[in-house]
């Protein structure tokens, strides 16, 4: 068992000044790990990414945990089998990225993502699934997922996806993005999407865009998602800079 920074009976020099281990951390091994990383300076230049695995197949859950625990930057905070269990798990132990399957018991597809985002609006969701239809992919992204991967994706790309979603950047592999372009049509933005993109360029959030255009938050989010996909952008900033570079929009002084 690892002693805390103030444990007695050790000859190792304590950091100066000594720090008391938070009582909450003593009861939660993941918070204890976070405390050790922060206090002892074990993290190096990159922050630890806390991941919650959500999949209804135990073999998949344990396989993903084994794979991710081999990555020094990733800490698996828990494993659950449904979206509702994920809501409870996030309430008890926060996670930076939710790695979840698309179709599970109780809730499936975009409904599961919508439920998770409704109760945990700050959750960053990376879908990892076997389903690759355009309807599934677009439904997940429009519901609030930040990334989408297939389960046959190599480990290094899954890790890359987790890192990008952790940074709040959209992650869709080129193979999926190219296929979505066929569904979304050519890269032209609709008049409404151009209007939304101009408001994004002004720094507005989805909620502020919805209020300005008298549309629902969900509709505003769908428009922003379409803009990112059509411009092949990973985040809102990249979408705006790409549109300006291509002459699609102009920002007045």
Low-confidence stretches: 1-22, 33-44
Biggest beta sheet summary: 5 strands, parallel
Radius of gyration, in Å, reads: 21 Å
**Which geometry do the CA atoms define?**
globular
Write out the CATH superfamily name of the largest domain.
Answer: Response regulator
Number of strands: 5
What is the CATH top level name of the largest domain?
Answer: Alpha Beta
GO molecular function: DNA binding
Protein name: Response regulator transcription factor
InterPro entries: CheY-like_superfamily, NreC/VraR/RcsB-like_REC, Sig_transdc_resp-reg_C-effctor, Sig_transdc_resp-reg_receiver, Tscrpt_reg_LuxR_C, WalR-like
Domain HTH luxR-type: 182-247
Could you characterize the architecture of this molecule?
There is one protein chain. 32% of the residues are buried. This protein starts with 22 loop residues before the first helix and ends in an 8-residue tail after the last helix. Helix 6 links the parallel strand 4 (125-129) and strand 5. The chain has two domains: 49-173, Rossmann fold, CATH 3.40.50; 186-245, Winged helix-like DNA-binding domain superfamily/Winged helix DNA-binding domain (Arc Repressor Mutant, subunit A, Orthogonal Bundle), CATH 1.10.10.10. The protein contains twelve helices and five strands. Mean pLDDT is 82; it is low at 1-22 and 33-44. The radius of gyration is 21 Å and the shape is globular. With 253 residues, the protein is α/β, with parallel strands linked by helices. Strands 2-1-3-4-5 form a five-stranded parallel sheet, with helices on both faces.
């Amino acid at each position: 068992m690892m002693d805390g920074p103030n444990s007695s009976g050790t000859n190792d020099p304590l950091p100066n000044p000594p720090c008391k281990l938070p009582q909450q951390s003593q009861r939660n091994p993941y918070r204890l790990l976070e405390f050790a990383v922060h206090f002892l300076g074990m993290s190096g230049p990159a922050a630890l990414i806390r991941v919650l695995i959500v999949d209804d197949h135990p073999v998949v859950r344990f396989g993903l945990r084994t794979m991710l625990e081999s990555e020094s930057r990733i800490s698996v905070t828990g494993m659950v089998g449904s979206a509702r269990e994920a809501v409870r798990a996030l309430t008890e132990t926060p996670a930076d990225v939710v790695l979840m399957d698309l179709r599970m018991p109780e809730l499936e597809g975009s409904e599961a993502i919508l439920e998770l985002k409704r109760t945990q609006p700050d959750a960053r969701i990376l879908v990892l699934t076997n389903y690759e239809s355009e309807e599934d992919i677009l439904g997940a992204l429009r519901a609030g997922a930040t990334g989408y991967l297939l389960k046959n994706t190599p480990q290094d790309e899954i890790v890359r996806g987790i890192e990008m979603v952790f940074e709040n950047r959209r992650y869709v592999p080129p193979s999926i993005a190219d296929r979505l372009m066929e569904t979304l049509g050519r890269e032209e933005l609709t008049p409404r999407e151009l209007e939304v993109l101009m408001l994004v360029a002004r720094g507005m959030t989805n909620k502020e865009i919805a209020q300005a255009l008298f549309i629902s938050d969900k509709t505003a989010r769908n428009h922003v998602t379409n803009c990112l996909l059509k411009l092949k952008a990973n985040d809102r900033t990249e979408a705006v800079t790409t549109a300006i570079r291509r002459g699609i929009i102009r920002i007045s002084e």
